[in-house]
Amino acid sequence: MKALPFVGVCLLVTAVLTACDVASAQSDSWPTKPDASLTPGLARDDLTLDEICTTKWGTDARSVTAAMKQQVMDEYAFKASECPLTHLNGKAVHRVEIDHLIPRDLGGADDVRNLWPECYEQVEPNKSEQEDGAHKKDQLETRLNKELCKDGHPTQEKLDEYRTEIKTDWIALYHKIYGDN
Q: Contact, 111 vs 43, CB < 8 A?
């Protein structure tokens, strides 16, 4: 009898026991970057540099609706179960965020052309061992806003550079800023 590949066995066992979720949680087979044809990235044109630097992002009003989130999930044919297991409130769960490609704190728009499903990864003490996911991208977004706004002298050139780099490859930008740690 021919041996089944691990994935085949996992699918077989999952149908009966759902035991392979834990094993697949360590896999990095989930998408870590948006599809540029679905999420090209879109910035707001109604924000000044001063507004970008003085808004308390996360406490302001958002315009992303449940219908928009569902549209993004449908366009990507994505299910949260594709995400790795992470710990939340003492439980192992699959977590997905409908994330802004160009972050809101860099003037990213609340528009489906700027949204994509991004998995949360397990947080590791040694960041070089941490997979690429929503936690890392959130860390990068906060850092970019601080760098843009430091000393109270943001420039349009720096904002444009950050927007372009994050749209092109947020993971490469993360490593450019943080190195391999």
A: no
Pair 117, 165 in one domain: yes
CA-CA distance, 137 to 151, in Å (whole number)? 24
CA max distance for the chain: 69
For 126-137, write each residue's pLDDT tens digit.
Answer: 877 889 999 999
- Taking only Cα atoms into account, the Rg of the chain, rounded to an integer number of angstroms, comes to 18
Domain count, the chain: 2
Burial of 39 (0-12, 13-18, 19+ CB in 10 A): buried
| pLDDT at residue 12 is higher than 50 | no
* Per-residue pLDDT reduced to its tens digit, 69-103: 999 999 999 999 999 999 899 999 999 999 999 99
- Is residue 121 within 8 Å of 135, Cβ to Cβ? yes
Same domain? For 48 and 22 the reply is no
- 91 and 143, same domain (yes or no): yes
**Tens digit of pLDDT for each residue in 158-171?**
999 999 999 999 99
Question: Could you tell me whether strands 85-88 and 96-100 are parallel, antiparallel, or unpaired per DSSP bridges?
Answer: unpaired
Instruction: Provide the Cα torsion 111, 68, 99, 156; round to 10°.
Output: 10
Are residues 55 and 21 part of one domain? no
Range from 2-11, 83-92, 121-130, 147-156 carrying the lowest mean pLDDT: 2-11
